[in-house]
Amino acid sequence: MPDKLRTFMRPQLLIPAAVAIVLLISAIIFDLGRASARSQPFPYNHSIHIQNGISCLYCHTGALRGQSATLPTVGKCQGCHANMDSDTPELQAWADFIVDNPTVEWVPVAIQPDFVYFTHRPHLAAGLNCEQCHGDVSQMTTAKPQPHQDMGWCLDCHKELAPEKVTKLTDCATCHK
Ligand code: HEC
Ligand code: HEC
Ligand code: HEC
Ligand code: HEC
Ligand code: HEC
User: Fold this and answer.
1) For position 16, what pLDDT does the model report?
2) Rounded CA gap, 120 and 112, in Å?
3) What is the pTM of this model?
4) For residues 131-140, average pLDDT
5) pLDDT (tens digit, 9 = 90+) per residue, 34-84?
6) Whose alpha carbon is nearest atom 25 of ligand 5?
C-alpha cells in the first residue's frame, strides 16, 4: 500500500471520518424534510397569551425537566378556554376547530436533526432565558424558527464560557452522542 493511503487508512482517522460522513448525509436528509414543513394546524397566538401574563413554562413544561421542552395538549388549552366565553371571532374559531380536532399535532419549527444532542436544562440552569435562543416570542403569533442555529452558533457561545468548561463543551461527543 502506498504510504499516504496507509496513513489515511489508520483506524484512528477512519472512525472520525466515517462519523462525519454519516452526520453529513443525515444533515442533508434533515434539511430536505424541513423545507417541506407544513404550516400550523391552527394559528395559535403567542403574543396575546404572553400579554395576559402566562409564563412560557406553563405550556412548555418539559424545558426544565426533560430533553424536550414539549408543546401543550388541547387539554392544557381547555384548562382555561373551557371556562371562557368565545365572544370574539378568534375564540369562536378555536372552539369550532376542536370539535373536529380533539388532539392537535403542532408542527415543530425549532428543531435540530436527530444526530444532535440538545437539552434545555443546563442552559436554563446557567441563567440563559428563552428569548436569547428563540427570539422575542412575546411579539410572535405562531412561533418562528430563528435563522442560523447551526453548529457554529452552538460552538460560538460554548467557546465564550469558563475556560475549564470549554474542552467538554466543544467536544464532538457532547453534542453528537
Ligand atoms: C392560562 C390560561 C390560558 C391557556 C392555558 C390558554 N389560553 Fe388562550 N387565551 C387566554 C386568554 C386570557 C386570552 C385572551 C382572551 C381575550 O382577550 O378576551 C386567550 C386568547 C386566545 C385566543 C384568541 C386569540 C385572538 O387572536 O384574539 C385563542 C384562539 C386561544 N387563546 C387559543 C389557545 C390555545 C390553542 C391554547 C393552547 C395551546 C390556549 N389558548 C391556552 C388564556 C389561556
Ligand atoms: C398558552 C400556551 C403557550 C405559552 C404560554 C407559550 N407557548 Fe410557545 N407554543 C405554544 C404552542 C401551542 C406552540 C405550537 C404552535 C406554534 O408554533 O405557534 C408553541 C410553539 C413554541 C415554539 C416552537 C416550538 C417548536 O416545536 O419548534 C417555541 C420556541 C416557543 N413556543 C417558545 C415560547 C416561549 C419562549 C414562550 C414564553 C415567552 C412561550 N412559548 C409561551 C404554546 C405556548
Ligand atoms: C441555549 C439556547 C436555548 C434556550 C436558552 C432555550 N431554548 Fe428552546 N430550544 C433550543 C434548541 C436548540 C431547540 C431544538 C432542540 C431539538 O430539536 O433537539 C429548542 C427547542 C424548543 C422547543 C420545541 C421542541 C421541544 O419540544 O423541545 C420549545 C417549545 C422550546 N425550545 C421552548 C423554550 C422555552 C420555553 C425556553 C425558556 C424557558 C427555551 N426554549 C430556552 C434552544 C434553546
Ligand atoms: C447562548 C449560549 C449557548 C448556546 C447558543 C448553546 N449553548 Fe449549550 N450550553 C451553554 C451553557 C451556558 C451551558 C452550561 C455550561 C455549564 O455551566 O456547565 C451549556 C451546556 C450544554 C450541554 C451540556 C454539556 C454537559 O455538561 O454535559 C450540551 C449538551 C449543550 N450545551 C449543547 C448545545 C447545543 C447542541 C447547542 C446548539 C444547538 C447549544 N448547546 C447552544 C450555552 C449555550
Ligand atoms: C456544541 C455542540 C456541537 C459540538 C461540540 C459539535 N457539533 Fe457538530 N453539529 C452541531 C449541530 C447543532 C449540528 C446541526 C446543525 C448544522 O448542520 O450545523 C451539527 C452538525 C454536524 C455535522 C453535519 C454537517 C453539517 O455541518 O451540517 C457534522 C459532520 C458535524 N456536526 C461534525 C462535528 C465534529 C467532527 C465535531 C467535533 C470536532 C462536532 N461536530 C462538534 C453541534 C455540535
Assistant:
1) 59
2) 13
3) 0.91
4) 94
5) 544 458 999 999 999 999 999 999 999 999 987 889 999 999 999 999 999
6) 24
Cell of 173: 461527543
Q: Enter the C-alpha cell of residue 97.
A: 376547530
Amino acid at 153: W
Side chain identity, residue 127: G
Q: Which three cell numbers stand for residue 121?
A: 436544562
Alpha helices (H) along the chain: 3-8, 11-35, 46-51, 56-59, 62-65, 74-81, 89-100, 120-125, 130-134, 151-159, 163-169, 172-175
Q: What is the mean pLDDT of residues 128-152?
A: 93
Pocket of ligand 4, beta carbon within 6 A: 112, 116-118, 122-123, 126, 128, 132-133, 149, 153-154, 157-158, 161, 165, 168-169, 174-175
Ligand nearest to the CA of 152: 5
If you take atom 36 of ligand 1, which residue's CA is the nearest one?
A: 77
Domain boundaries, the chain: 1-36, 41-146
Ligand nearest to the CA of 101: 1
Q: Ligand 1: which residue has its CA nearest to atom 3?
A: 80
- Give the mutation target among 61, 80, 97 for probing the ligand 1 site: most ligand atoms within 8 A of CB: 80
Report the Cα 12 to chain-centroid distance in Å: 33
